[in-house]
Amino acid sequence: MEKQQRRDPDYAFILTTLLLLGISLIMVFSASYILAEESSRGDPYYFLRRQALWIGLGLIGMFIFSRYPYHRLRRISPFLVIISFILLVLVYIPGIGVEINEARRWIGLETLTVQPAEFCKLAFIIFTAAYMSSRSIRLEKFWSSSFIPLALMGVAFLLIFKQPDFGTALVLAAATVTVIFIAGLPFKQAAGLFL
Question: Is residue 29 part of a domain?
Answer without folding.
Answer: yes
